[in-house]
Design goal:
The complex is a heterodimer of chains A (347) and B (476).
Chain A lengths: L23 E3 L16 H6 L2 H15 L2 E3 L2 H13 L4 H12 L6 E3 H16 L6 E3 L7 E6 L6 H15 L4 E6 L6 H12 L2 E3 L7 H14 L4 E6 L7 H14 L9 E7 L5 H13 L3 E5 L9 H9 L3 E5 L7 E3 L2 H8 L5
Parallel strand pairs in A: 1-4, 5-8, 5-9, 6-7, 6-8, 9-10, 10-11
Antiparallel strand pairs in A: 2-3, 11-12
Helix pairs in contact in A: 2-3, 3-4, 4-5, 5-12, 6-7, 8-9, 10-11
Chain B lengths: L4 H9 L10 H17 L4 H15 L10 H17 L13 E6 L6 H16 L3 E5 L7 H12 L2 E2 L8 H15 L3 E5 L8 H14 L3 E7 L6 H11 L4 E5 L8 H10 L3 E5 L7 E3 L2 H8 L5 H11 L2 H13 L4 H13 L2 H8 L4 H10 L1 H13 L3 H5 L6 H11 L3 H24 L1 H9 L4 H11 L5 H6 L9
Parallel strand pairs in B: 1-4, 1-5, 2-3, 2-4, 5-6, 6-7
Antiparallel strand pairs in B: 7-8
Classes of the chains: A alpha/beta (347), B alpha/beta (476).
């Protein structure tokens, strides 16, 4: 397990010591998903290690703009620039700034006020999509989650983290199907996560038909009495028709068991991705009826601001964010925290 | 989903047609559109700002050439400036006295391991190098396993895995083995790391210092957003890179990250990853990415898409016919099927420079139905009629019309279309296929625009254009 101990000096390596808020909630979602946070150990403070650093720069940019002065066009342009640099995209950034300037233009305004107001606007867009993944186990088999995304987005790691949390924290019986039968050592990678989490691993050889893996995995998971079945898939670029057809086939074949399967389809999105995320969501959604997003690698310098535009356009729930390589580093998505981080408000 | 820059500038400049020169206001309007286009393509904002300033200076005061619209002219200025900024000549990988070391660095999930294997395969096949690959990724589960498996798949040697060894020690062991066993090159694949992770950045710094690699390649995803500048700058500051490898260029991202990273580091983009196969690694062509960033369409991609989808044998047969200048209804039918396979007329037209706005009209025109009709006509012909179109006399045409549920006029139209294609074939025969492909490769140059303009002259019906599909000869 050496691979997550390397930041020992900075991070707590254990999974159990921290009680992260649940990324997904069983059956009925509690209204406040954040109840599990310890004092001083909020989602945003964890983000603070990464996102905080980048937003510090954004914060600085904003700080340079405002002391307390009249809101003028130059200031608004600077604000728009800051949002663009957070990957909100030119159109969304312009819209948010326009909304912000309404009723404020030409008035005296202070730095804190600007940030708070901006954060409110961004949060307003994100609030409707900040929803935990609701696990509703059907009586006759496991709750089936299909996980898809482009190459290198972090699908396997995300599955590993989810499995770990569901098994160790919630005492769920979790099965994982290795549907990435293409990439070398994808199965081995998933197996290590499964073993560590104590999840059941279902796999065939590299090169096997992914749809067959998924189909058989459902039966095996069901027979084993699993509560949850997560199906990993190979990374695929959304503009590759043959690969998207393969994904469609996985869904089609799963539905032979039961038309409601998969119960959830998660699209994993790398936060370093720019405006292409729009095309990703659009295409994956067409093919697989994506039910929610997970945004990864938010502990880096990328801000993931593209999700603001995504929320506005698609309204897909954002269930969780990845903020590190440890199992605990998958956290619920909190609109206010995210928005405040984005505009440079700490804690 | 985005309007192409050409369309937008067309609107901005619509009112300017026939004016003498571009004044500052005209240019300012255009620059706003260009700014948005670049940002939508994920070029980083500071880079966009610099770029706009440069282009503005070039554009103001330019005479408006009669034959093109001011919009097209500005697009050309922008395009040329982009190409210049992205870098001129293709930069080759270099070697030192053996064993050379290459260090692969980048963020998590950028494609380092796959790229490592692709480069190794490329240099083995093309330059007869004896290569050893070593994974220094002791963090991600099964990462070393992954490289070992890629080694098996590609037939390239990998360093045996010793559990528990530290990255720097693995690197030393790899170089030792290379020296002892006479390898030309060692490619060191490192773990993905975030630029803000001080410990990890220090680790890769130490590895670079100790190994003194002749190439340090930053592997970055073509889909990267604004963060591309941070990533490139910090990696380059900490472990000076010799080049950038842009991966997933076969996706549909506009690839603005390429410009951001080149601008902020000054380092060349040496290679691009264009697919999941081992040979899907190519030299970087600035003009292709430039066209893509601007959303101007990409003729080369079109050629490649055609090659990907088209049946090889059929293509060879067709190419032979092309060279003889022959083209009959069988060919037309098979072309229609190919086009269908490639995502229909609309999909193809979108890729053609300057035709972006036509795809909207096409959707309205219900071309799918038109194609169906044409198909029905051809299928109602006898085999002999299909291969010898001259046979079509009035009585045959009436029979075919009845059989296909169309009119004689429809058949005449299709016949006319076939003849137009034969004309194009003849012209191509005169030019020679090699020359034709050469021009396609250097697309977006003036020559090509002229060529496309010529083949469209007086007849903007996209069906004819597609019929004259000149891209059927083999790839590269």
């Amino acid at each position: 397990m050496a691979f997550w101990n390397r930041n020992k000096s900075e991070k707590e390596p254990t999974l159990v010591a921290e009680q992260p808020a649940p990324v997904a909630v069983p059956e009925q979602p509690p209204v406040t998903a954040r109840a599990g946070d310890r004092e001083g150990e909020t989602w945003v403070s964890r983000l603070g290690m990464g996102l905080g650093k980048s937003s510090a720069k954004l914060g600085q940019d904003l700080g340079d703009l405002f002391t307390k002065k009249k809101l003028d066009q130059d200031t608004l342009n600077g604000l728009e620039d800051a949002l663009i640099m957070a990957d909100l995209g030119p159109v969304t950034a312009a819209r948010i700034v326009a909304q912000f300037s309404e009723g404020r233009f030409g008035k005296d305004i202070g730095d804190d006020e600007v940030r708070a107001a901006l954060a409110d606007i961004v949060a307003g867009i994100l609030l409707p999509v900040a929803k935990p993944l609701v696990l509703h186990k059907p009586g006759n088999g496991p709750f089936v989650i299909l996980v898809c995304g482009v190459n290198g987005a972090g699908k396997t790691t995300t599955i590993g983290k989810l499995a770990d949390q569901w098994v160790k924290r919630d005492g769920r019986k979790v099965a994982i199907a290795a549907g990435d039968t293409f990439r070398a050592a994808a199965v081995e990678q998933l197996k290590i996560w499964a073993d560590r989490a104590g999840a059941m691993m279902i796999s065939k050889d590299t090169g096997a038909d992914a749809a067959a893996v998924a189909y058989e995995a459902y039966q095996q998971a069901k027979d084993a009495g699993a509560d949850i079945l997560m199906i990993d898939t190979a990374g695929r670029l959304h503009n590759k028709k043959n690969l998207m057809d393969e994904l469609e086939k996985i869904v089609r074949v799963l539905k032979k068991h039961d038309d409601t399967i998969p119960h959830a389809t998660l699209l994993v999105l790398d936060s370093t991705t720019g405006q292409n995320a729009h095309a990703q969501v659009e295409t994956f959604r067409e093919i697989t009826n994506v039910t929610g997003l997970i945004v990864t690698k938010l502990d880096g310098s990328a801000k993931g601001g593209v999700v603001v535009g995504l929320a506005d356009r698609f309204g897909l729930p954002i269930h969780a964010v990845g903020v590190g390589e440890g199992a605990a580093d998958l956290q619920p998505f909190d609109a206010h925290d995210f928005a405040r981080s984005l505009v440079g408000i700490r804690g | 989903m985005f309007d192409s820059l050409g369309d937008k500038l067309g609107k901005v400049f619509g009112k300017l047609r026939g004016k003498g020169g571009l004044n500052e206001d005209d240019v300012a309007d255009a620059m706003r559109e260009i700014r948005v286009a670049l940002l939508e393509a994920d070029v980083a904002l500071p880079v966009v700002k610099n770029f706009i300033e440069t282009v503005k200076l070039k554009a103001v005061g330019q005479d408006v050439i009669k034959s093109v619209t001011p919009g097209q002219q500005v697009v050309k200025i922008v395009h040329d400036a982009l190409v210049e900024m992205l870098g001129g000549d293709t930069q080759e990988l270099t070697f030192s006295a053996p064993p050379s070391a290459y260090l692969m660095v980048g963020l998590q999930g950028s494609g380092k391991t796959t790229t490592t294997a692709k480069i190794a395969k490329f240099l083995t096949d093309k330059q007869r190098k004896k290569i050893l690959m070593a994974s220094l990724d002791v963090y991600r589960p099964a990462a070393q396993d992954q490289l070992a498996q890629l080694g098996t798949q590609t037939g390239i040697a990998t360093l045996p895995i010793v559990a528990g060894q530290k990255p720097l020690d693995i690197a030393h062991r790899a170089m030792d083995m290379a020296r002892k066993e006479g390898f030309d090159l060692v490619i060191l694949d490192t773990a993905g790391r975030l630029t803000i992770d001080e410990e990890m950045m220090a680790e890769v710094e130490a590895i670079q210092r100790a190994m003194n690699p002749v190439e340090t390649l930053l592997v970055a995803d073509a889909m990267t957003g604004q963060d591309a500048v941070n990533t490139a700058k910090i990696f380059n500051d900490r472990v000076p890179v010799t080049g950038i490898v842009l991966t997933r260029v076969d996706g549909d991202a506009r690839g603005g990250a390429a410009l951001s990273m080149k601008a902020v580091t000054g380092k060349p983009i040496k290679l691009i990853g264009v697919g999941e196969k081992w040979d899907a690694l190519e030299p970087f062509h600035p003009d292709r990415i430039a066209g893509r960033i601007l959303g101007m369409g990409d003729v080369v991609s079109l050629v490649e898409k055609a090659v990907e989808t088209i049946d090889r044998d059929e293509a060879e047969k067709m190419a032979a016919k092309f060279q003889k200048g022959e083209f009959d209804f069988n060919d037309l039918l098979s072309q229609m099927n190919q086009v269908k396979k490639m995502g229909g007329v609309g999909g193809l037209v979108k890729m053609l420079p300057g035709l972006g706005n036509m795809s909207a009209q096409l959707e309205k025109a219900n071309l799918g139905d038109a194609t169906k009709k044409q198909e029905a006509i051809i299928l109602s012909m006898t085999l002999e009629e299909r291969s010898r179109p001259v046979l079509l006399n009035a009585s045959r045409k009436r029979r075919i019309a009845a059989g296909s549920g169309t009119t004689v006029q429809d058949i005449n139209k299709l016949y006319k279309q076939l003849q137009d294609m034969q004309t194009v074939m003849k012209r191509m025969k005169k030019m020679g296929m090699g020359k034709m492909m050469g021009m396609m490769q250097g697309m977006m140059g003036e020559k090509d625009q002229a060529l496309i303009a010529e083949s469209m002259k007086g007849n903007a019906d996209p069906r004819d254009l597609l019929g004259a599909n000149p891209f059927l000869k083999g790839k590269r």
